[in-house]
Inverse folding.
């Protein structure tokens, strides 16, 4: 019998997880799910995070040390950052156009606003998000550059939140390896080449458990979700965000078809396991190892490109998040009956661009940076908790959807950049058991 493709297995796992979660809600099995099912999903996410740093380090060092001349790296780097900025601005513009045309906030009743405010404005995670955002706002304009440079390589390697520092260190090391010449850099290069292959094999092994893990992750999302009545009141707002995100996927398909001449449906099929994991985990950082594996082995992007474009993208390129921030900011103003001028909307484009760059690639991070967008267009501080309360109930499902777009955007840009520098080749898929017979 033909083996079922991975994305189907994952989809079946997700569907069963949703059904299981609903059944558990009906029979009062919330605690059972949290005690016995949730840990399976958490272990899976931990395994993915476990290999993220070694993979970034190994693949970036391999990618750079494979380059025959450094100017190529500058070329790839500038193109990547340029395309990332353009796609993010397009995402924000799509979000702003939709939210202004469809005005989801105008129809929200006083009663709903009061109910949402009472339920969520004192919520501890809403308060925590505002506190975290105000910490970020107290910093100077060049703080992000300062934060990018580690003062201790091992500390950077020991903290998943310091991904940009790891990227900085790996690029610095890789370039210095090029500069000492091939002969002297060889032992180090062999070490990282081999580490890179090994970590990609770890991805294959972890992915064997993906269908079961997504079952657990989604069952847990369902049992910890909010009152369906509240979700219903926010349906129009959520619909606008989702419509914008779907348009972004169409936009990526057009980019792939135009710039790489590949079939966009083929692209979406190859990348689908990473998209499904992005949806299930709400974290581009946790999904990164799978995105890298899919893009390199199943799409054919050379490591010289993917090793830089994807980790950088996971941390700074968040088209889905920026689109959501634009829609959410305008929605909150509409619902509270406040006006936004054209100049305010331009401010949203700029701040949402910076906010999405600054958002961490973890669940719920987009909402922290949304606070900064809201403040930049003059939402009075006492209305901040109310503003966030308005959108909090649907944040998790929207986070799942926007993370899919974040990951798809990174994969698209890696293909476009690879094609532009002649590094888009043929896929060469490796399976977890390719050498199993020899070692059994
Ligand atoms: N969860 C998103 C990501 O990891 C970030 C966010 O929008 O909250 O890409």
């Amino acid at each position: 019998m033909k083996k079922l493709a991975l994305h189907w297995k994952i989809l079946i796992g997700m569907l069963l997880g949703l059904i299981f979660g609903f059944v558990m809600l009906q029979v009062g099995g919330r605690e059972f799910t949290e005690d016995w099912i949730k840990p399976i999903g958490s272990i899976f996410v931990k395994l993915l995070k476990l290999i993220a740093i070694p993979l970034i380090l190994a693949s970036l060092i391999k990618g750079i040390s494979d380059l025959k001349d450094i100017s190529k790296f500058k070329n790839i780097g500038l193109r990547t950052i340029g395309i990332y900025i353009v796609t993010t601005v397009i995402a924000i513009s799509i979000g702003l156009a939709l939210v202004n045309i469809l005005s989801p906030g105008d129809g929200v009743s006083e009663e709903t606003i009061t109910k949402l405010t009472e339920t969520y404005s004192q919520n501890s995670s809403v308060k925590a998000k505002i506190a975290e955002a105000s910490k970020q706002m107290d910093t100077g304009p060049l703080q992000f550059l300062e934060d990018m440079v580690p003062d201790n390589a091992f500390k950077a390697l020991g903290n998943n939140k310091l991904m940009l520092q790891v990227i900085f260190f790996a690029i610095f090391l890789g370039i210095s390896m090029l500069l000492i010449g091939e002969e002297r850099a060889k032992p180090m290069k062999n070490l990282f080449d081999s580490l890179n292959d090994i970590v990609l094999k770890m991805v294959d092994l972890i992915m064997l458990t993906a269908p079961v893990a997504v079952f657990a992750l989604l069952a847990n999302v369902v049992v910890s979700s909010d009152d369906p009545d509240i979700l219903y009141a926010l349906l129009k707002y959520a619909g606008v965000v989702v419509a914008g995100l779907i348009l972004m996927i169409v936009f990526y398909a057009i980019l792939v078809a135009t710039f790489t001449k590949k079939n966009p449906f083929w692209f979406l099929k190859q990348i689908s396991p990473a998209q499904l994991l992005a949806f299930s985990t709400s974290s581009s950082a946790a999904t990164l190892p799978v995105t890298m594996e899919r893009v390199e082995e199943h799409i054919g992007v050379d490591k010289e490109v993917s090793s830089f474009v994807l980790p950088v993208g996971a941390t700074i390129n968040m088209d889905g998040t920026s689109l959501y921030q634009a829609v959410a900011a305008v929605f909150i103003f509409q619902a509270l009956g406040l006006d936004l001028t054209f100049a305010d909307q331009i401010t949203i484009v700029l701040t949402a661009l910076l906010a999405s760059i600054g958002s961490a690639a973890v669940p719920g991070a987009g909402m922290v940076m949304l606070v900064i967008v809201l403040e930049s267009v003059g939402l009075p501080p006492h209305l901040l908790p109310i503003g966030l309360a308005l959108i909090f109930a649907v944040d998790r499902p929207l986070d799942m959807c926007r993370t899919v777009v974040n990951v798809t955007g990174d994969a698209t840009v890696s293909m476009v950049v690879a094609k532009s520098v002649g590094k888009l080749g043929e896929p060469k898929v490796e399976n977890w058991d390719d050498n199993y017979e020899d070692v059994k």
